[in-house]
Design brief:
By secondary structure, the protein is of the alpha+beta class. It has six helices and six strands. Helix 2 packs parallel to helix 6. It is elongated, with a radius of gyration of 22 Å. It comes from Pontibacter diazotrophicus. This is Peptidase.
Amino acid sequence: MTKYLPLFPLSIVVFPGEKLNLHIFEPRYKQLVLDCVENEKTFGIPTYIQSGVGVYGTEVEILNIEKKYDNGEMDIRTKGLKIFKILHFDRMAPGRLYAGGEVEEVENKDDGDIITKLNITESLKELYDALGISKLFLELPENYKSFDIAHHLGLTTEQEYALLQLENETERQEAIFLHLQQILPVVQQTEQLKDRVKLNGHFKHLMPPDF
């Protein structure tokens, strides 16, 4: 099933369920927001990547306009709903200033492997401990999904965009666990290096070896 969505390309990846606050200042996007609010419609945020509008993005709903400024600018709160693929892109939607496009919803299988999730949870704890941000781990809900932690894994925009395109939770879990396995040793070695650097220049109380 396809539909036509107003589009707001941004150089970020928005995931389903994500809360995103935006400051709207360009005339075309002021028009987009007002149109969506007036008609109670959603809009799409495709990822602008590698100097172009990506094929994939996330449909979002406007929760509320938090603040309106005298010059027409706005602060809005939005929430990601579901992933779409652009079938046809218009730089300007018919009769409007903003972009639009014919999109189809990407099926998202919300399965998952409990063992892989346990491995991810343990790796996340190790990562956050090494980085000194254990508080972030404590705030993790027990029933979290891959999209809930995607922005907290140290992924590049390209890697987040690749994750967005995976159509089931099991594949996303495997990609995330592989990423954590790759970066954990690097982070831990970096922290050890920082500790060694701090020791240089200090008086050291060392126990001589017994030989």
